[in-house]
C-alpha cells in the first residue's frame, strides 16, 4: 500500500484545485518525495492536509483555532472559499499491475494480512463547509469517521503517530508521558486496528448491557400485568366455551321443550274437541229420548206404585244433592286449606296429587249426575249441581301454582271440616243404600209391569244409558279441557322464559323444534343451563378489550424476552471477542516491544557512534478496593506506559530531559527508525524534522531515509540540501500574488 495522489481544493492556502502525484521510484524502492519552498509558501499545509484527511480532530495539531480555519480565508485579490476538500488515493501494491512495482514481502503486508482483503484502490475524502457541515467519503461513498480510522488502521497508517510527523513533533515522543508514549508505540506496532475493534466491542458491550438492563426492567414491569391478563383471558376463553355450551343447551332446551309442548297442545286440543263433540252428540240424543219418553208417558201414564217409588227417589235425590253440594263445598275448603298450608310452607302441591284430586272430583261429579239422571226426574237440578262441581274443579285448577316435587310435605286440614266431610260421605253412603233398596223395589215392580210397560222401560233404559254416556263424555271433555289448560299454562310460562333469555328464537321456534326434535332427559338440561348462565354472569364483568391488550402485552413481552436472550448472547460473544482481542493485543504488543527495543538500541548506537538506549515498560499501579486496601494488578495486566533511557557515548546521563536539542532530535530519529524497521508504515510524512540537525547528523538522517525507502514511502518537507538529494521527486511550493500556494514538480533523474 502506498500513497499515489493527493488532491487539495480550498484547504488553507491551496484555494484552487491542486494535485500532487506520488509514485515509487522503482520496483525495489518506494522512494522519497521532497517538498521544498521558502518559509510561508504553504509547504507544511501539505502535511496538514494529509493529517486532516486522515481524520485529525485537534485544531492545535493543524495549527488552527477553529474548524473553519482550514478553509481558504481569501485575500485582497481572491475571495474566500466556501469549503475545503482533500482527497487521498491509496493503492495496493499487489494489484497495481501498471506501476511495475513488484510485490513486497515487507512487514507491512504481514501487519494487515489478518484483516479483511482491501480494495485495489482506496480514495479517502474529507470535506468541510463554512456552516460546519463535515463529510467523509470512501471511494466516493459517504462514510463515518470511525470507518475511515478503521480502514486506515487496517492499511497500517496511523492518524496521530509517526505516519505524519510535523514541526515540533520530533521531540513530542520524548517529552510525552509514559502512557502517551505507549499509545504512540501501540499504534506504531500495528495494534491500532485491534484497539479500534476492542473499543467498538466495549462500546457495543456497554450499550448491550444498558439495553439488557432496560429490557429486564420492562420485563419485570410487564410480567405482573401479563399474568393478570393471562388469567382474565383464560376466563374469557372459558366464557367462549360456556357461550357455545349455553347456545347448544338453549337450542336443545327451547327447541325440545317447544316440540314437547306443541305436540301435547295439539293432542290435548284434538282430544278436547273430540270430547266436546261426543258430549254434544250424546246430549242431543238424550234430549231426543227424553222427548219420546214424555210422549209415551202422556199416552200411557205410569201406575200409582211407580210414582210412589219415584217420589222416594226424588226425596233421596234431593237429599243427595244437598249432601253433594256440602261435600263439594267442604272439599273445596279442604283444598284451599291445604293450598294455603303448602304456600306458607313454601312447598307447592305436587302435580300427581293435583291430577289425582281433580280426577276424584270429576268422578264424584260424574257419579252424582249419573245417579240423579237414572233415579230422579229432577234432571235440571242434578245438571246444575254437576256443572257447579265442574266449575269449582276448573277454578281450582286455574289457581294452582307450578308443580312441586313429589316429596312435598303433607298439609294439615281443620279437624272440624274433616269430621263434617266424613259425616257427609257417610250420609251419602247411606243414601246410596236407600237408593239401591228403592231400585230393588222398582225392579220388582218393573217385573210385574213388564208386560204392559216393556217399550217404556226400554226407552227409559236407553235414555239412562245415553245420559250415562253423555256424563262420561262430559267428564272426558272436562279432563281434556284441564289437560289443554295445563299445557296452555306451560306454554305461557315457556314463552315468558324464552322472551327473557332468547327472544331472537321466537320467530323461528317451529323450525328449531323441527330440527331439534324430541330431546331425551329434557328435565336435566335446565339445571345445567342455569349453572352456565350463572358462570357467564360472573365472567361478564371482564372487558372484551382484554384479549387485545393481552395479545399486545404478550407480543411485547415475548419481544423483550427475545431481546434479553439475544442481548445476553451478544454480551457473552462480545466478552469473548474482547478477551480474544486483549490476548492478541498483549501478544503482539510484547513481541513488537522486544523487536522495537532491540532496533532502537542498534539505531541509537549507529547515530551516536556508541552509547546505550533502552525502552522500559512501566508496570501498572496497584488499585484500592472498597475498604481502601491496595490490590496488586493481575500478572497479565498491560503496562501503564513506556519510559525511554538514552545515554550518548562518553556521558552518564539517564534522563531524556538532560539531552541537548541535537541529541534529542537524533534520539527521536533513532526511535522513528526503529519503528520503521519493526513495522514500516506505507508512507511517512516528515515536516522539517531535520531542521535541528547539523550537517553531519543530516547526512545520517538522509542515510536512514535511504535505508528505509525500500519499504516505506517518504514525503519530506525540508530546507536541507542533503535531504533533498535523497528525493527522487521534488515539489516546489511558492506563494503567488493573490495569496494562494502553487506547486511545481521536478523529477531529479530527468534533470540529471
Write the layout of secondary structure elements.
Layout: E1 2-9, E2 18-21, E3 32-36, H1 43-53, E4 83-91, H2 107-112, E5 121-129, E6 134-138, E7 141-143, H3 145-154, E8 164-165, H4 172-175, H5 178-188, H6 192-299, H7 304-344, H8 351-375, H9 379-398, H10 415-501, H11 509-516, H12 525-539, H13 546-608, E9 612-618, E10 623-624, E11 630-631, E12 641-647, H14 661-678, E13 683-687, H15 695-708, E14 713-717, H16 721-725, E15 729-735, E16 741-747, H17 748-751
Parallel strand pairs: 3-14, 3-15, 8-13, 13-14
Antiparallel strand pairs: 1-2, 1-4, 4-5, 5-6, 6-7, 9-12, 10-11, 15-16
Strand content: 5-15%
Distance between the termini: 29 Å
Uncertain segments: 95-115, 342-348, 401-411
Q: Do you know the CATH topology of the domain at 1-163 and 684-752?
A: Rossmann fold
Q: From the helix content, strand content and strand pairing, which structural class follows?
A: alpha/beta
The CATH architecture of the domain at 1-163 and 684-752 can be given as: 3-Layer(aba) Sandwich
Q: How is the largest sheet built, in terms of strand order?
A: 2-1-4-5-6-7
Gyration radius, to the nearest Å? 63 Å
The average pLDDT is 77
How can the largest sheet be summarized?
6 strands, antiparallel
The overall strand count is: 16
